[in-house]
Write a structure and sequence with these properties.
The protein is an alpha/beta fold. The chain contains 26 helices and 8 strands. The strands form 2 sheets. A 6-stranded mixed beta sheet has the order 2-3-1-4-5-6, with helices on both faces. A two-stranded antiparallel ribbon has the order 7-8. It is elongated. One of its GO terms (molecular function) is ferrous iron transmembrane transporter activity. Pfam families: FeoB_C (PF07664), FeoB_N (PF02421), Gate (PF07670).
Length: 611
């Protein structure tokens, strides 16, 4: 099966084009560092061909780990006989930036005898501003076919599909003219070509500058940043509440309708206690994961995320990090694993290592069900100003902020105690143009992210839930949970968590959550489901409120989950990316001990205040 390479610089719309041509759902955003590995998929119009998407890179002289991936794969792909042709995507609104890389790609394609086509993306932006790109002149100067397209609107993609459907014609390949040209000459050539054939970018720059004057201002920029971050976390409760109520109501209705129809008592108890009380309790919180991913997608695609990274650069420097650490850290809010991959975009190996240490402390979506459960159980659901301000949203913002600050404090301490063996590179970040987010791909990404979260976590939760139910139901068939196998196991781990004011039930839930944090919710749901088999099977919050769990214990649990590293998948990826099992083991043990100590302190202080 033949292959087609898709390569381009960051922010050029490469992933969006890849999604359009393949029908896949590769993540799309408007800042460097999104595509951190090589993706591939069959072309929708030409199923017998594979389109290979490379990470964005500014040059074939790699600096960051992300660029190393792109350059290494590209060099090997050019030697692959199955590679039929190369598509090099350029940003028509920033021609000079794209052309240096394009000339390098053309040169390497000439050396390896590969046909190349240049795709000038974002032609719709030029049309909207009355600007023009001299496509014919640029094509003649490059001795290479240039096609104007818009990956967002789909303009010009028919010509791309038609091109890919044909077999490469050596007679139409460009005339070799750059094979022996050094990069220093290519840089000057890119400047001349952009000036000669490119659009007048003053209009686009003036629009971006006006917005930057507000979002990057020393006062309005900081205020808008904190306001946007607060609205992000407030929306987790406000926007998702109707969907959560709908899921909870649907599960309760389905349980009431289905369980009585089951004749066998064992099957009936398993369905109500394990499925509806255990797994159902977890599903209630999935809408919040969708909202979180959706809002972050809006910020990414609009171009604001790069500005947020620039705003955060100075404060992050105090903790040994860089502004480029902000993007992987915020990606870790959705999931630590893509955050760790995104850290490849950080040039400095030392700052990359420190970012690895901070990412697991970011409040990922796996923590979200736990936070939501505990906040709903202890914080009043009162709102003002039409839902704009609420105590639960403020509590969520506080615990998210706490986790982020703990990550910064730890990296700050490590950066001051560990000797620097690397020469740090200067902080350079491209500010992409502001754009209206594409709602459809963002919704699709949020949906896929939520679906992936459910399918990935669902397997673990189902396995643990079944195990917890079996241990809690036998040998007395749920008559006395304390005397069950689970109760006996719980009493063994209870001394570890009793200093937090937690009984064996919560100790078991914490213990199982080391497989994955979100298992905590499913485990508690199963335990309380067995205890209250005749009560409501879904509202886990009510069970916790009726269990007389102290406020100090609830806050201690929030702090414990904010700091502890309880994700096997994250540990595996961290060991692979950092190439250090020692660092991974130290982080796992160190974060657990820190989380445990901090949780005890919070519990005792709260109990002292409450009298």
């Amino acid at each position: 099966m033949s292959k087609v390479i898709l390569i381009g610089s960051p922010n050029s719309g490469k992933s969006l084009l890849f999604n359009r041509l393949t029908g896949l759902s590769q993540k799309v955003a408007n800042f460097p560092g999104i595509t951190v590995d090589v993706g591939s998929g069959k072309l929708q119009a030409v199923p017998e061909k594979i389109l290979v998407d490379f990470p964005g890179t500014y040059s074939l002289q790699a600096i960051s780990a992300e660029e190393e991936v792109a350059v290494d794969y590209f060099e090997r792909a050019l030697e692959d006989p199955e590679v039929e042709q190369v598509l090099c995507l350029i940003d028509a609104t920033r021609l000079e930036k794209s052309l240096l890389f394009t000339l390098q790609v053309i040169r390497d394609c000439e050396r390896n005898g590969k046909q190349i086509t240049v795709l000038a993306n974002m032609i719709d932006v030029l049309d909207n501003h009355g600007l023009e790109l001299d496509v014919d002149g640029l094509s003649a100067a490059l001795y290479t076919r240039v096609l104007p397209i818009s990956a967002r609107s789909g303009k010009g993609l028919d010509a791309v599909t038609e091109l890919l459907a044909r077999r490469p014609d050596p007679a139409r390949a460009g005339r070799p003219h750059l094979m022996d040209t050094p990069d220093v000459i290519l840089r000057g050539e890119a400047h001349k070509l952009a000036h000669r054939f490119g659009p007048d970018g003053d209009v686009l720059i003036r629009t971006q500058t006006r917005l930057d004057n507000f979002f990057l201002h020393s006062f309005t920029g900081g205020v808008s940043f904190f306001l946007i971050m607060y609205l992000l976390f407030q929306s987790i409760f406000t926007w998702s509440a109707p969907a959560m109520d709908a899921v909870e109501g649907s599960l309760a209705w389905l349980a009431d309708a289905l369980v009585p129809l089951l004749g066998n008592q064992l099957v009936r108890d398993f369905t109500s206690d394990a499925l509806f009380s255990g797994i159902g309790a977890f599903l209630v919180f999935v809408p919040q994961i969708f909202v979180l991913t959706f809002v972050i997608g809006l910020l990414e695609d609009s171009g604001y995320m790069a500005r947020a990274a620039l705003i955060c650069h100075k404060p992050l420097r105090l903790f040994g990090l860089t502004g480029k650490s902000f993007i992987p850290m915020l990606s870790g809010v959705a999931c630590a694993i893509p955050g760790i991959y995104a850290a490849r975009a950080i040039d400095s190996p030392r700052k990359r290592m420190l970012t690895y240490m901070a990412i697991p402390l970011m409040p990922c979506s796996a923590r979200l069900p736990v936070y939501t459960l505990l906040i709903a159980a202890f914080i009043p659901a009162e709102t003002t100003l039409g839902g704009l301000f609420g105590w639960q949203g403020l509590a969520m913002f506080a615990i998210y902020f706490f986790g982020m600050m703990m990550g910064l404090v730890i990296t700050g301490l490590v950066s001051r105690t560990r000797e620097d063996h690397y020469t740090d590179l200067p902080f350079v970040l491209e500010l992409p143009p502001y754009r209206l987010p594409g709602i459809k791909p963002i919704v699709r990404n949020a949906w896929n992210r939520s679906k992936h979260f459910v399918t990935k976590a669902g397997k673990i939760i189902f396995a643990v839930t079944v195990l917890i139910w079996v241990l809690g139901y036998f040998p007395n068939y749920g008559a006395d949970l304390g005397e069950s196998w689970l109760g006996q196991l719980g009493h063994l781990v209870e001394p570890v968590f009793s200093p937090l004011g937690l009984d064996w039930r919560y100790g078991v839930a914490i213990f199982t959550s080391f497989a994955a944090r979100e298992v905590f919710v499913g485990t508690l749901g199963t335990i309380f489901g067995i205890e209250g088999a005749d009560e409501n099977m879904v509202p886990l919050v009510e069970h916790i409120q009726n269990s007389d769990l102290a406020l100090g214990s609830g806050l201690a649990l929030l702090v414990f989950f904010a700091i502890s590293l309880q994700c096997v998948s994250t540990l595996a990826i961290l060991a692979k990316e950092s190439e250090s099992r020692s660092l991974t083991l130290k982080m796992f043990v160190g974060y657990f001990l820190l989380a445990y100590t901090a949780a005890i302190a919070v519990y005792r202080v709260t109990e002292w205040i409450m009298g």
